[in-house]
Specification:
The complex is a heterodimer.
Chain A lengths: L1 H19 L5 H48 L13 E16 L7 E16 L4 E10 L10 E14 L2 E9 L21 H5 L6 E12 L2 E9 L27 E9 L5 E10 L13 E12 L2 E12 L12 E14 L2 E11 L10 E13 L2 E11 L7 E11 L1
Antiparallel strand pairs in A: 1-2, 1-16, 2-3, 3-4, 4-5, 5-6, 6-7, 7-8, 8-9, 9-10, 10-11, 11-12, 12-13, 13-14, 14-15, 15-16
Chain B lengths: L2 H21 L10 H8 L6 E6 L2 H11 L7 E7 L2 E9 L4 E9 L2 E10 L10 H4 L24 H22 L1
Antiparallel strand pairs in B: 1-2, 2-3, 3-4, 4-5
Classes of the chains: A alpha+beta, B alpha+beta.
Chain lengths: 413, 177
Amino acid sequence: MKKCVAGLLLGLFTTAAVAATPVPTIEEMWAIIQQQQAEIDQLKAQLASADEEIKETNVKVEATASAVEAGMASGGKSLASSWTERTQIGSYGEMHYNNLDDNNDNGGDKDEIDFHRFVFFLGHDFSERTRFFSEVELEHSISGDDQNGEVELEQAYIEHDLTDSTHIKAGLFLLPIGILNQTHEPNTFYGVERNNVEKNIIPTTWWEGGLALDGEIAPGWSYETTFTSGLKLDAEDGDYKIRDGRQKVSKANASDFAYTANLKYTGIAGLEVGATVQYQEDLYQGDYDQDVDAMLYSAHVAWRNGPFGLRALGATWDIDNAINGIKEGADEQEGWYIEPSWLVMRDLGVFARYSEWDNQAGSSDDTDINQWDVGVNYWLEENVVFKLDYQWQDAPDDKKELDGLNLGVGWSF
Amino acid sequence: MNATCTSRRLGRGLMVVILWMAAFSAAGEEYLGRDEFLDLACGDSQPEMHTLWVTEEMRTAATAAVGWMPNALRLRYWQEGSCTAWILEDIGKIKPITLGIVVSGNRIERVEVLAFRESRGWEIRYPFFTGQFNGLTLADDGYLSQPIDGITGATLSVRAVERVARLALWLDAQVQS
């Protein structure tokens, strides 16, 4: 009962206290509303300003990212640098171990390790349409008097786009003949050594100085034509092999020129079919009793379907028979090879190659050499390769007949 | 006059024919522009541009999965539903190739070469080559689900396209998850 009385008294007291608080007048209410509206307006303005600042910050972040990325692209040397962005470098190289026996005992035994090639690329874009490209090669590791190697300028030319699909080159460049002459990075072909047909008949690596025009005729069809310095064989030394005629654009005798035309079809994935004709005005550059003009015909196919690959090439020289006065049968020099391959795994491939070549094919004597190769490529990385192969040669008695093992390591980037 | 002379004359005739063809082939050909690529990317709808910021964690994961990540702080991509379009660059032999890759449903839907700057290997832009990528997915080992038939003389450019395609598939999976 006491609790009920206490509760009643408390309720009455509270009601009396509320009734005592003054109710705001309409004017006071209006003032409060106006004050709150002002605060809302102020908050809205602050929000708009914050939005603007966020947008500005985003723009600054994007600009900073672009500048940093530009710095990354230029090697971080300078954010303003554009020279480095337009300059490219690269390299390829290969070291070989050859353990070969000369079955004919003509002094050809070979048991050596050789850093065969170290190549450095340098390119520069003068503009979107004009560029420079060069390759400098150190062969056999060391050059100089009485040394085995040499430093060679293998490419150095200016290329200009006449249109998007037509380009003109001037300078020193690789001729468009065969499979390996223009593309010979070691990770792109099977076998430690380059095949002997493209070495002795084409003869890879073959560069000349002059002009070239290349481009596309239609989708899948391309051409390259060149007007260049020619070969020069030394009549006094009795030279007749095509490979001995390379002047390498080193104070090259330019009495007589060479004209090359190449046509290529690459319109099906994995397939390349190419053919080249070349005319040499005089292989002796006027130093022999009479002009010795010559015609080279070369054709090749390179096909890859899944893990299976096939390369085949044939090349033949038709030379004025005056050359027979220097070496009998040298008016015809020819060769061919066929090379099936199988990519057993993504990074492991095997191949076999049969090749024949003859620098005196016009002779009735037995002068041709043939060779079998079988081997394996292992790509440690896409552009790093280890190679192993074994070769068997069959050669005339007066020539080296080399059988044995080859090992190699190569890269490109 | 003998067979040899006739042969050389024929050879010279062949050269003249090729030179003649060359002289009449100097017609320009334009590569696909960015806007044209995006118009083709995701059906009738224009995909919306997004930015993917490349964190160190993402770079590490991409390198582990597909072997590389561009040296960039962020990548632009365009998205419409499950379709993403990527414009990425990689070096062929010595110069960058700009590629547009469309991925939809974890499969490559389209590969386009937007810019090719090397002097050899331009064949990679033709449908007979790019069409091989259509429908391919990213295999568990980080490579494409089917091998690609290459182009002789353009090995490095072909590998660059494969690398970019693998990365686009991986990036698509990241933004779709």
